Amino acid sequence: xxxxxxxxxxxxxxxxxxxxxxxxxxxxxxxxxxxxxxxxxxxxxxxxxxxxxxxxxxxxxxxxxxxxxxxxxxxxxxxxxxxxxxxxxxxxxxxxxxxxxxxxxxxxxxxxxxxxxxx
Length: 119
Hints:
Elements: E1 2-6, H1 14-33, E2 43-51, E3 58-60, H2 65-75, E4 79-89, H3 102-105, H4 109-118
Helix pairs in contact: 1-2
């Protein structure tokens, strides 16, 4: 999605236009996440850019998009640019803890009863 949201309309009030923009973004994320993943991918990742214009757009996180739209509303701008590109991604493997303390693995419940009483 590469879109410039225009926030002026002769019949629609400005707060409704901001709500519509947020709703469009939410629907786009849902639509993209429901697409089938290619082989080897674990999830859909998104590259997002936000700005007053396309030339001024800078990278943002997904969680910051709604706050940025709210900032545009408080600043009173008449439009903003939003770019969201979906790409398949793979999570990095988890680290496995190999050197666990044998005392903790073989400890009885009685060993931990004293710890709770000390606090």
